């Protein structure tokens, strides 16, 4: 197969591993910095130009699109789709997953367990907002936050109110969420490929920290998932239309709750923690679904 990895940095662990896994299986693989491509949008012979070279006839694409490059990145993925390539994640699913609020709404509609969540931009009724999610303690999140920054635990109603007022003063969009205390600062990253969880790890926040992000000093370990956790992760990825996804779960007293879903999940933490060849699993998935003549993606834009 001819495979394109769309990545801004060939040196990143995830990019290197995907290239290596494709080469080990004798595929013709090219890493393409999608930010430097340009496209010809025409119905007859659409194409992508990169480094003066016309990119054509790719069987499969692996998008590794960072959050800050979503707009142009998904446009390039879409162009490869228009040309008939099978993408490990469709442009549409990537765009959808980048909006945290939209993602929660889609998951809720499918009946997937979520922490009770309220959303607000500029409400005057802060007391009501806090009460809708069950009252303090609550977790308050900036919609644009990442790596745990912009996620606050407010232990009392008064603290929650002050934090919400402060964010409102900054004109920020926020989520207010039921605090899942029984998760005890841990979450579970399920790596989904196709309709399977191929690897999973438990992340534990540093001492006294409720956020489990590795960027905030958390550490990761192998974990055994319950059948319910597995099926929740698979159903969540499917609801989002993602073929490759990192689904983060909280273990609550009433079962697994989906916290968020990532469409370009990193490979380093999960491979090093579990010893699973996740990159290989992604290439295998493409082999099964993107074989020449099998690229039957019929995407509605
Ligand atoms: N409702 C909650 N109850 C308990 N703990 C939570 C809750 N929401 C978040 N956390 C903890 O805080 C951490 C960070 O929250 P979250 O993953 O929502 O934001 P983020 O990590 O900043 O976003 P991203 O993963 O996109 O970078 C989670 O990994 C989890 O450990
Ligand atoms: Mg997170
Ligand atoms: Mg996220």
Write the topology of this structure:
Blueprint: E1 2-6, H1 13-24, E2 28-32, E3 38-40, E4 47-50, E5 53-55, E6 60-63, H2 70-82, E7 86-87, H3 91-97, H4 100-109, E8 117-120, H5 126-132, E9 138-146, E10 149-154, H6 157-169, E11 174-178, E12 186-193, E13 196-204, E14 219-222, H7 227-240, E15 244-252, E16 255-262, H8 268-274, H9 278-289
Helix pairs in contact: 1-9, 2-3
The structure holds adenosine-5'-triphosphate and magnesium ion (2 copies).
The site of one magnesium ion has 2 residues, from strand 16.
Domain ATP-grasp: 104-287
EC number: 6.3.2.-
InterPro entries: ATP-grasp, ATP-grasp_RimK-type, ATP_grasp_subdomain_1, RimK, Rimk_N, Rp_bS6_RimK/Lys_biosynth_LsyX
Number of strands: 16
Low-confidence runs = none
Name the hetero compounds present: adenosine-5'-triphosphate, magnesium ion
Helix segment count?
9
What general outline do the C-alpha atoms trace?
globular
CATH architecture of the largest domain: 3-Layer(aba) Sandwich
Strand order of the largest sheet: 14-13-12-15-16
Give the DSSP E fraction (strand runs of 2 or more residues): 25-35%
GO molecular function: ATP binding; metal ion binding; ribosomal S6-glutamic acid ligase activity
GO biological process, one term: protein modification process
Keywords: ATP-binding, Ligase, Magnesium, Manganese, Metal-binding, Nucleotide-binding, Protein biosynthesis
EC number: 6.3.2.-
